[in-house]
Please model this.
Amino acid sequence: MASKININGFFRDTSGLARMVELRQGHLAASPAESDSPDFIHELATRVHPGIMKFQIADIKESSDYTRIYQLIPKEGTIPPFQSGQYMSLRLKIGNSVLTRPYTISSAPFEAEGENPFLEIIVHRSKKGFVPDYLFKHCEIGDTLETSMPFGDFYWEPLRDSKNIVAIAGGSGITPFYSMARELASGKMKGCKMTILYGSTKSDDIMLKDELEELSSTCWDLKIVHMLSDEPNWPGKQGFIDKDVIKRYSTKGCTYMFCGPFAMYGHILNALGDLEIPARRFHHSIISNPDDISLLPGYPEDAIGKTFKITVVRGIQEDVISASAHESVAVALERAAIPVDTRCRNGECGFCRSQLLSGKIFVSPIGDGRRAADIENGGFHPCSSWPLSDLKIKVPIL
Ligand code: FES
Model:
């Protein structure tokens, strides 16, 4: 027997749908082009994760012959929240190249809020720094600087860390602790005590000496200990920060934080190992690779002084550039004006991730942030990789 089909309901549904479409088109035509109800989620996401931020240089203070403090105020919007110890990646267009360099935010988080928010970065002009030289020579009050949002996981975390902090700094590694010291002195880190052990070669090398002294003179919870390794007439402590010095200023269960040069990092790691400090109580900032990469363990001697060719694939375009063995692949790309998105410049953040199609690279053991899948599939970070042969690489199109 043939089954009976009731088609009345079908026609009712179809005509109802047609009426709904008409109704909807009417509502759409009558609605404003822009949404008039605030999108709180979007606003929050934009505030916390802005793309490129634009700042105006509001002030430049000479802290020493080689050190300048740049005060930056936002040109638009607000400054996203950050933690003492985090950095921003400064983005400079120099000639045809766009260079990015990470700079620690040296002002305190509370100073980036309120009616007159600002940030500070400290630029130290060392013998080899191209970007510090450029900033010293070409950037003046009123100029605009572009930066990324704050990044990095080097900061004091109250849920994880002790309220007693031993901060160990070397050279320009004092900057994250200067930010922490400002936060502490303002009363924002309630119950915390911080001792900064600051190692320098000579008294002229001490950065922010007056600024730190001023803070510690008003804040009982902040203690600064300078140690000089090469100034016999220095009236204060002499020598290197070793396990005895660290032990003297430690308290039970304290948290250790380190920011300083590569050579010092190894000594501090050994000293903390001798004191049997568990890894969970020690945090360190990004450790920069030495200027001479061949000093790192595992670097093959036969690559020293050589020059290689790198074939760079971007979509359907291919360029061949030259690169010397002593410069990272990211530096070679920047020199050839091929854009590469770098932030940490030490293999940590993953922003510069590219693909090695052929050839051999040396990956810095102190900045190898590759995941196992990256290693298997040729993923690598140009910022922490050096060519050991001619290479063919694929980089994202920016
Ligand atoms: S810039 Fe961060 S991994 Fe290369």
